Amino acid sequence: MAIDSTVVSTQLPIKDEYGFFNIRLESIGGFGANIAGKMLAEAGVLYQGFNGSNFSSYGSEKKGSPVKAFIRFAEPSTEIRISSPIEEPHIICIFHEALIRTEPVVSGLRKGGVVIVNTKKSPSEIQKELKVENATIGTFDAMTIAVETKSRVNMAFLGAMCRASGFLNADALKAMITDTFTKKYPATVPGNLQCFDRGAAEVVFETFVSPDTLETRTFKRPGPLFGYMNAVPGGVIVNPGNMAKKDLSASRQGFLPGFNRDTCIDCAQCDMVCPDFCFVWEKGVDKRGRPAMNLVGIDYQYCKGCLKCVEACPTDALQDLREADDYGKEHRTKHNYWR
């Protein structure tokens, strides 16, 4: 895709003390934040002439674990010599609403910054949850857009960021999307471009200004939780992992398995392929009255929506279902040890 260089500007609308425009993506494994950060930086560098850098931060890469991506842009005359995580971003993108409850996603947001959230809620509703002032909040249902265009959430966010940034060129980003996917996945290009366009068009922005907090916010880097003055005795785990609090629902990408007990034959094919032991069984009897284990439901708290069980089910007792708000919570069957 050709880019008209006469309409591409290499001026940033706002910069930090180092001359950078900073973007931070707050996501979870499986939503494509890593590739989105790469494509965003490459589009700015290759097609718009900016200096740019990006990298991601993640753990085991398991689907559902926290992921952060960091993108810096600078004008051609400014070199980027910093490779540290972005602590004071101008734009923050939150790929899943559940992260608001579990991660400090808006930490360090600059005065007048932009927060973009994948949610069905309005900007004012999200603002009350985030508790940020002197910022612009954008909301859109990126999940629905991705499902309907057969794309992914990250493409919708690229469109929303393009609109929010004030300097990123839509044609440049579309060219990068086309170049990235044409070689290996050419069939996905039209859907990805449509997802990008809808993300840019459907995000709704609202600015929130509080007269009481108009002064510049001062960012303070959080220090270590423990030092030599307050260290706990050796070997003590102060924050142990807890299966009861484990929640993989945030990693679902719009679908989950729907269960029909009437057509289930208790073959356990689903249980054998489930990576997170989501299926709940109880002692019962089979059709001949003999003692047997019966599948009674799914503990959706642990279901990340991989749908391997749907592929394995021989009777269509499990089918992929478009997830509605609170469906998992309302239809959850808890494991026996949590009852």
Write the layout of secondary structure elements.
Blueprint: E1 20-28, H1 33-47, E2 51-58, E3 66-74, E4 91-94, H2 99-102, E5 114-118, H3 123-130, E6 135-140, H4 142-149, H5 153-165, H6 170-182, H7 189-202, E7 204-208, E8 255-259, H8 269-273, E9 279-285, E10 291-298, H9 308-312, E11 318-322, H10 327-330
Parallel strand pairs: 1-4, 4-5, 5-6
Antiparallel strand pairs: 1-3, 2-3, 6-7, 8-11, 9-10
Helix pairs in contact: 1-5, 1-6, 4-5, 4-7, 5-7, 6-7
Class derived from helix and strand content = alpha/beta
Q: For the residues shown, what is the average pLDDT?
A: 88
User: Which second-level CATH architecture of the largest domain applies?
Assistant: 3-Layer(aba) Sandwich
Might you state the CATH topology name of the largest domain?
Pyruvate-ferredoxin Oxidoreductase, domain 3
Q: Strand percentage, roughly?
A: 15-25%
For CATH, the homologous superfamily of the largest domain is named as Pyruvate-ferredoxin oxidoreductase, PFOR, domain III
